[in-house]
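Morning, I've got a small favour to ask if you have a moment. I owe you a coffee for this, so here goes:

…
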Amino acid sequence: MNSRAIEILVGIFMLLFLAAMLVLAMRVSNLTGIGSGAGYSLVAHYDNIGGLKEGAPVAASGVRVGQVESIAYIPDDYSARVSLRIDGEFEGAFPEDTTASIYTAGLLGEQYVGLEAGAEDDALADGDEITLTQSAIVLERLIGQVLFSQSGSQ
C-alpha cells in the first residue's frame, strides 16, 4: 500500500474519531434535546436546588420526559423557581398531585428532577405549578447533622 492511501485512511479515521467525540460531548452536556420546543411548561418551587442546572433532565419512572428550562431565585419567599419543559407526547400524563423531587444520578453527581405521579383525575396543563416538591439532599448538611448528633450524645 502506498503512503498516499495510508494518509487518506488515517484522515478518514481521524474524522470519524472527531465526529464520535462531538456526539459524546453533546450527550454528556445534555445538548441533544435543545431546540425541540414542543411540549408544555410546568413550574416548581424549592427551598434548595443543590447543583441543579438548566438543561438537566426531567424523568418519570426513569424515563426522560423533559428538561429543566430555567431557574430563578424568588427573594419574596427565599425559594428557587424551576421551570420544566415537558415533551408534548406526555401532555396530560401527570396528575395535579404529582411530586417533583431533585435527585442525584451517577458518580459525578449530576442532578435531575424526578416526577412521581399521584392519584388525582385532573392532569397538569401548560403553566401549572407543581405544589408537592422535595428539595435536593445536600451531603454537607447531612454530614453536619450526623456530627452534631454524635457530639451531643457524648
